[in-house]
Amino acid sequence: MFFARIKSPSLPTLVERLLPPDLASLIRSQSNGQQVWLVGGALRNHFLDLKQPDLDFAVHNRAISLARGLADALELPCYVLDEQRDAARVVLPGRGTLDFARLRAPSIEADLGLRDFSMNALAVDLDDPERLIDPLGGLQDLKDRVLRACAHDSIERDAIRSLRAVRFSASLTLRLEDQTKEQILQSAAALSACAAERRRDELSKMLETGWMTTAMRLMRRLELLSGVLPEQAALGSDAWDRSLRIVDRLTDLMGAVAGGSEPGNLPQAELSLRLGRHRTGLKEHLAVTLRGGHRAGQILFFAALHSEVDDARSTVYLRARELRYSEVEAARARSIVRNRERAGNLEGDITDLGAHRYFRECRTAAVEAVLLYLATSFAHSPPQDEWELKVNVAQKLLEAWFEDYERIVDPPRLMHGNMLAAALDLRPGPIIGQLLAAIAEAQVAGRIESEQEALEFAREWLHSRS
User: Fold this and answer.
1) Residue 420 Cα distances to 411, 430, 437, 440, angstroms
2) DSSP-assigned states of every residue in 268-296
3) Distance of CA 70 to the CA centre of its chain
4) Domains in the chain, start-ordered, CATH in brackets?
5) Cβ distance 124 to 40 under 8 Å?
6) pLDDT tens digits for 168-206?
């Protein structure tokens, strides 16, 4: 049985697995003799056999001082998270963190009772590692696969916990306990009043995951969509189903291209065969962090969610900005939606010049727009011959981006604008940009290769328009 191993957990082994003995000893030495508890998610994830790079600790007081002393001893950076709440973070090499916070109640048991869900209300005293502190039966709830609020007003006290409940339920396949579900429904109207950044952060943790549509469906049933994605909440059932099919197909598409599993159907097999060579490039491209802190892949899925809303290109931008995504991220989402059909204009005999023009128009969102174009097509279950045509377009465009970038996407500039203006006695203005674009197209077509040829081409181009 999955939980047989934890019915009588070996807590010293548990603590040692989560916290190296020398680090535990150093934390205790920096605590000035006060108790330090390992709390929350690290313990939950241990019992679920999940990795947990981040560790949370609770102390009676002086948490920031403890974190700073530990960081100094380890020669690592330390950041104050909340001076009023006395909370700070030590950043470990790699991606892990150690967070320290002051208890919000007189005792550890009372503090755990103020947390969101019973499965997160677990603690171990570093000085008494043989005893799991579990005042609300969180370990049994994990065994029963139940998500239970810590108190009758846990969600009411912080409506953002309703989104967290959706995330935990979908990602960990937990059943929402009835009273917890009722709390969520009663607090749904308060969600829109929560800080936009907090709503965005919870939503972003759902994007680009295999359980994303499960979370979206649960949000709709619990009446939470209007507090985060009101345009989706307003969709009729048919449009809503189509938008989720597109997200599902995008997930399938990425899985097929990434490999590692057998394709589930013929379209997926076609994707795996034709586009699998770009799996490394796609993975790296979508993992890039944009200005604003979110990955390109998350913004792609945010755009996909808006595929069926009215005036999608404007709506996705405005919704992203309302949720405090950065201008760069919001503009990227808008560009993905705006350009997803542009690739369709290339169906048939796609040329190098056609690919170049596509990338010039789409700019940085070009790869994501190809993927959304494919996912949208995939969601409509086209006949096999049509599907092969669409995959051929995607294959050509991705080959240009990942394998022939300097020849097709962005050829080396033979002349700069000021050079053209001086050589041809031109005033600054749109004509300079038009000339540079025409020269680049001539390069892609193989008609010019040198600065002199570019200058002669520019003279002829101007003459033809005089």
Assistant:
1) 17, 13, 12, 13
2) HHHHHHHHGGGHHHHHHHHHPBPTTS-BH
3) 31
4) 4-144 (3.30.460.10), 145-228 (1.10.110.30), 232-409 (no CATH), 417-464 (no CATH)
5) no
6) 999 999 999 999 999 999 999 999 999 999 999 999 999
